[in-house]
Amino acid sequence: MPSPKASPPIYRLKITLIGIDPPIWRVLQVPNSIKLCCLHSALQVVMGWTDSHLHQFQKDGENWGVPEWDEFDELDLIDESRTQLAKVLKSEGDSMLYQYDFGDNWRHEVVLEKIIPVSDAVKVPLCFGGERRCPPEDVGGVRGYQEFLEAIFDPRHENYEQYLRWAGGHFIDEFDLKAANGILSLMRLPMRHRR
């Protein structure tokens, strides 16, 4: 009689957008067997990005992403769709960098906070918390975002009206946990059990 396959452990990750104060962060739980391409999709959801730009993961001099997008072989990308998270982050405290939008250069520190053994397979990522809304796309990186915040919350600022139109209305600097988990609940992860 074959033995039952164990469900992969859960990784609790803390994601922090580097260079922003007060910090913009999220806590996300995913199976350690998740492929980096699926982790990218989950990070886009919880951070509030729109997946409109290139991205890559970085750790110890290696880069993971979508090799077809690296037209000139400058990034030396390992295929993220063939790499499980557990092959990159192996123990509590391990971290990697997630870079999104090479122009604005949004860099996220992804830390493996806790490894949680489970008995049932996890079918979707789950966000457990976070603070602050993500910057708007194409705002100009950390410096552009600081300028945006100075203007968007001050109706007397010379660029207030321009930024208000550009942002599509009032900018509420809050993270919507319920909305993020609603979108995450639609993700279906490929189930890969360890032997």
Describe this structure as you would to a colleague.
By secondary structure, this protein is of the alpha+beta class. The protein has two domains: 10-133 and 174-184, Structural Genomics Hypothetical 15.5 Kd Protein In mrcA-pckA Intergenic Region, Chain A; 134-173, no CATH class. The protein has four helices and eight strands. It has helices spanning 36-47, 141-152, 160-166, 177-184; strands at residues 10-17, 25-31, 55-59, 62-65, 77-79, 95-100, 106-116, 126-131. It has an eight-stranded mixed beta sheet. Strand 6 (95-100) and strand 7 (106-116) form a beta hairpin. The longest helix has 12 residues, at 36-47. The chain starts with 9 loop residues before the first strand and ends in an 11-residue tail after the last helix. Mean pLDDT is 90; it is low at 191-195.
Largest sheet: 8 strands, mixed
Overall radius of gyration: 18 Å
Strand content: 25-35%
- Stretches with pLDDT under 50, minimum 5 residues: 191-195
What structural class is derived from the secondary structure elements? alpha+beta
Report the CATH C-level class of the largest domain: Alpha Beta
Order of helices and strands: EEHEEEEEEHHH
Q: Quote the CATH topology of the largest domain.
A: Structural Genomics Hypothetical 15.5 Kd Protein In mrcA-pckA Intergenic Region, Chain A
The tally of helices reads: 4
CATH architecture descriptor name of the largest domain: Roll
The average pLDDT is 90
- The side-by-side strand order for the widest beta sheet comes to 5-4-3-6-7-1-2-8
- The termini sit apart by 15 Å
User: Which superfamily, in CATH terms, is the homologous superfamily of the largest domain?
Assistant: MM3350-like
- Morphology call: globular
Helix content: 10-25%
Number of strands: 8
